[in-house]
Amino acid sequence: MNVLTLSQLQFAATCMFHWIFVPLTLGLSVMTAVMETRYVRTGDETWLRMTKFWGKLFLINFALGVVTGITMEFQFGLNWAEYSRYVGDIFGAPLAIEATLAFFMESVFIGVWIFGWQKVSKKVHAASIWLAAIGTNLSALWILLANAWMQKPVGFVIRNGRAEMNDFLALVTNPYGWIKFSHALLSGYALAAFVIMGVSAWHLLRKNETDFFIRSFKMAAVWGLVASLGVALSGDFHAVEIAKVQPTKFAAMESVWETKKNAGMSLLLIPDAKNERNSVETLTIPGMLSFLAFKDTAGEVKGLKDFPKELRPPVTPTFLSFRLMVGLGTFMILASLAGVFLSRKENFVDNRPYLLLMTIAIPAPYLAQQFGWLVAELGRQPWIVYGVLKTSDAVSKSITTTQVAVSLIGFTVLYGVLGAIDFFLLAKYAKKGPDSDLSHIINAQGRG
Fold first, then answer.
1. N or C: which end of the chain has fewer CB within 10 A?
2. How many H-runs (helices) and E-runs (strands) does the chain carry?
3. Which helix (H) or strand (E) holds 208?
C-alpha cells in the first residue's frame, strides 16, 4: 500500500470509530433534557431516576466522543497537509467556530450538570442540560457544514493556487449542509431511541424495574418512530440534492451505467463494476429512480458511462452500502412502529420475542449510519472536494509509507482499547439499572 491508501484507511478508521459516539451523544443529550424537564414540571421522582440513569450513559459516551474526535483534526496537518494548504482558509472556519463556540458551550454546561445536582435549583440544573444539548447539536452543525462544503463547494474563488473564501454566508446557508445536518441529527435521535428501547427490553425480559423501563420504552418508541420517519424524509431530500450536484455518486448508488429517462429502480440488482453493465434486473419499479431524483418520472438520470473512468467512484461498495442503509432504516421504522403499539398493551412485558428482537437490534442504527457515511465518502471519490481537489492531490508529500502504517496500527490499538473500555462501562451501568434512592438530590434542590 502507498501513502495515499494508508492515509485514507487511517482517516476512515478514526472517523468511523468517532462516529460511533457522536449520534448517541446527539440523541441522548436531548432525550435526557426532556426527561429532566418532565421531572421539574411534574415532581415525579421516576423522571428524575430516568434522567440520572440515561444521563450516566450519555456522559460515558460523551467522554469517549471527545477523545476520539481530537485526533482526527491532527490528521489534516499530518496526513493531509496539501489539503490543508489548498482549502484550509475555508475548511478551517467552521471547525474554528465549532471549537470556540459550540464545544466550549457544551463542555461548560455539562460540567454544571455533572457537579450541580445539589448546588443549584432544579430549574437551573435542567437549563444546564438543555444548553449542553444545544451546544452538542450546534457542534454537529458546524462539522457537517464543513463536510458539506467538501461535497458541494460554494462561496470561494481559486487565487494564487489556493481556494479562498469570498462568501461565508454561502457556506453557512449551503443547502447540502442543512439537509445533511437534518439527516444526521434525526439519525442520532433514532439511534438514541433504539439504545433506550434495547436496554429497556433487556431489563423487561428479566422483569427488572418494569414501571421504570416500560415508561422509558414508551418514550423511546415514539422518538424512534418520529425520528426514523424523519430520517427517511430527509434522506429523500438528500437524494434529490445528490442527483443535482453529484451525479456520479447518484449513479453509483443505483449502479446506473447507461443514461436514461424514465429510469426505473431495481430492488434486486447486483452491480457489475468490472464489465460496466448491470446484471439481470428484477422487481424494477418503472420511473421510480427518475421520480426520486427529479420528482418527474421523465427525468434523465446520467449513467456512469457518461463520465471518464478516472472520475467514477467505486460502484459496488457505494451501491451495497446504500442498499444496506435503506434496508436497516426501513427495519427501524417498522420496529419502532411496532413498539409504539405493543408497549401500550398490558401484557407487553410478556412479549418475549419482540423484547428479544429489540435487545439485539441495538446495533442496527449504528450500522445504518456507518453505511451512510460510506455512501457519502466513497461516492465522492476520486474527489476530496468535489470537482475542485482530488484526493490523490491532497495527501502530504513529506510523509512515508512506514510512518503512516505505524500510526495506523497505533491508532487501531489505541481506539480498540478505548472502545473496549467504553462498551464495558456502558454495559456495566446499563445492566446495573437506575438508582433506587435519590432523596439527597430532591432534598437539596427543594420541591418548589
1. C
2. 15, 10
3. none
Alpha helices in 43-80 (DSSP H): 45-78
Phi, psi torsion values for 273, nearest 5 degrees: -70, -30
Phi, psi for 383 (deg, rounded to 5):
-95, 140
- Which are the contacts of 193, defined by CB distance < 8 A and separation ≥ 6? 27, 31, 220, 221, 223, 224, 227, 336
Spatial distance between the Cα atoms of 136 and 341, rounded to a whole number of angstroms: 31
Distances (CA, A) of 20 to 14, 62, 81, 414: 10, 11, 26, 15
Dist. CA 49–CA 435, nearest whole Å: 7
pLDDT class for 280, splitting at 50, 70, 90? very low
Give the pLDDT score at 330.
92
Residues 323 and 225: their CA atoms lie apart, in Å, by: 20
Report the 3 state secondary structure along 3-16. HHHHHHHHHHHHHH
Cβ burial of 229 (10 Å; 0-12, 13-18, 19+) is middle
> According to the 3-state scheme, what is the secondary structure of 393-419?
HCCCCCCCHHHHHHHHHHHHHHHHHHH
Estimate to the nearest angstrom the gap between the alpha carbon of 366 and the chain centroid.
8
Angle at the Cα of 379 (from 70 to 382), degrees rounded to 5? 85
Nearest to 185 by CA among 222, 131, 143, 149: 143
CA of residue 426 relative to chain centroid, distance: 19
Distances in Å between the Cα of 12 and the Cα atoms of 16, 81, 89, 154, 396 are: 6, 17, 23, 25, 16
Distance between CA atoms of residues 202 and 355, nearest Å: 7
Q: Quick check: 275 pLDDT over 60?
A: no
pTM attached to this predicted model: 0.87
Taking the CB of residue 122, how many other CB atoms lie within 10 A of it?
A: 20
C-alpha cell at 278: 448491470
- The answer to whether the bond into 317 is cis (omega within 30° of 0) is no
Cα separation, 78 vs 7, whole angstroms: 10
Question: Cα separations (Å) of 185 from 12, 21, 25, 97, 103?
Answer: 21, 13, 10, 19, 16
Domain edges within the chain: 207-390
- Do 144 and 137 contact (CB within 8 A), yes or no? no
Using alpha carbons only, what angle is made at residue 359 by residues 356 and 362, rounded to the nearest 5 degrees?
145
β 156-159/260-261 pair status: unpaired
Q: pLDDT band at residue 448, thresholds of 50, 70 and 90?
A: very low
